[in-house]
Design a protein that fits this description.
single chain; 288 residues; alpha/beta
Length: 288
């Protein structure tokens, strides 16, 4: 699906409506230097006019909601609307799913593409297929099934060349050194328009523009993901301290290197082959 050319990158699957986009490493460095000087709305305007196959990918966090509102305001002034990808892991809080309906009502011209784990549409189906508490038993497998594979399927089916994300440097950990525009190892363009904003700046925008937000933020949460891996935070803790509390993990999977999941899938394949070999050996022994 992706290829490297001329020491740069080729992004996305080429179609008539979504041509491929190429950036050399030098060009990427130049763009980040220039974009660093712009406000988020100006970065978004540049993205909309420069990046074909552009979508916003969001879990309806506060930054993503601010970005959705900014894009809608730009669309009112004549810019092309940017549609949204939402990954329904099946383990979102009820408040998050209620927010999804509020966003649909607030921005009726914006299309929301919802992707769920392949082959299932409810928790009961997921757990019949994979067992209970998969996130505890096999964390990487859960991330791949609930988040990574649906995201990759979304990119493929929608012809995504570039995604807007709500990641910010002030969120800390691995996000502390984020660029505004970057490439993942498969060539997908990722743009972080609000990378320079603090949580307080995002919150001020939400209040000033009366943007709908997750009710959990009024109950001590700041970063909201799946209910089984999200907790409220204490005063003075980092914004994402409530995610995977007590674990070394800091990312949900979709922003990890894809090679990590290629290795995981290879391990799963080898494990299945070994199990099949043992079953065959046991059968031969019984027949003997």
């Amino acid at each position: 699906m992706f290829s490297h050319k001329d020491e740069g990158y080729a992004s996305g699957s080429s179609t008539e409506s979504h041509p491929e986009v190429y950036f050399t490493r030098v060009h990427l460095k130049f763009l980040n230097k220039q974009l660093q000087r712009l406000e988020p709305q100006e970065i978004l305007r540049w993205c909309i006019t420069s990046l074909p196959g552009l979508y916003q990918e969001t879990a309806l966090g506060l930054t993503g909601l601010a970005m959705t509102d900014m894009i809608s305001k730009l669309a009112e002034k004549g810019s092309e609307e940017v549609h949204v990808i939402f990954l329904d892991t099946l383990y979102h809080f009820e408040e998050t799913l209620a927010l999804l309906d509020k966003v649909r009502a607030r921005y009726p011209s914006k299309k929301l593409h919802v992707f769920k784990p392949a082959g299932v549409s409810a928790v009961a189906e997921f757990e019949r297929k994979y067992g209970q508490k998969l996130w505890q038993r096999h964390d990487s497998q859960y991330d791949f099934i609930a988040k990574v594979e649906p995201a990759q399927r979304a990119y493929r089916e929608l012809g995504v060349n570039a995604v807007l994300t709500g990641r910010r440097r002030s969120q800390g950990a691995r996000r502390g050194n984020l660029d505004i525009i970057e490439m993942d190892e498969a060539g997908l363009i990722k743009v972080n328009p609000l990378v320079n904003w603090t949580f307080e700046e995002v919150q001020d925008y939400i209040k000033a523009n009366d943007v709908p937000y997750n009710d959990l933020l009024d109950r001590g949460y700041k970063s909201v993901g799946d209910w089984h891996s999200t907790q409220p935070i204490k005063e003075g803790e980092d914004e994402r301290a409530g995610r995977w509390k007590g674990q070394a993990k800091t990312e949900c999977g979709i922003h990890n290197p894809r090679s990590k999941y290629a290795q995981f899938l290879r391990q799963q394949e080898l494990k299945q082959q070994e199990n099949a070999r043992q079953d065959t050996a046991a059968k031969v022994q019984i027949e003997a």
